[in-house]
Amino acid sequence: MNGSVAKIYNQLSHAENARNELLSSGFSADSVHLESIQSEAGPTAGNFAVGNGDPDGENPGTDYERNFGDPVQPSNILLTVDAYDDGLASRASDIMLRHGGHDIA
Question: What is the reported pLDDT for 30?
């Protein structure tokens, strides 16, 4: 393998823990890259602009919960490692998965 291993994380602290373990296990700082990939728009699931309110008024007091109560926050932290052989790629992937990394879909 001659390329990169990439995982996404839901929480920055998990990605930072993976990065720290990668560095402490011998990966160079130049080969480990951590970045935020969230857009300025924020969560993408939900209906912030027009709402999901109750147009008939049958359930007063539920508009906030329907519109904003359970937004879905996408995974937004990307950690990549330059791996120049299969052994390094496997080791990096194991570390990244152990700290909650997910494959990019």
Answer: 96
Q: What DSSP letter does each residue of the chain carry, written as one string? A: --EEEEEEES-HHHHHHHHHHHHHTT--GGGEEEEE---TT---BS-TTT----TT-SSTT-HHHHHHSSPBPPP-EEEEEEESSHHHHHHHHHHHHHTT-B---
Instruction: Look at the pTM and tell me if it is higher than 0.85.
Output: no
Where does residue 18 rank: exposed (0-12), middle (13-18), buried (19+ CB within 10 A)? buried
| Domains of the chain (ranges, CATH numbers) | 3-40+50-98 (3.30.70)
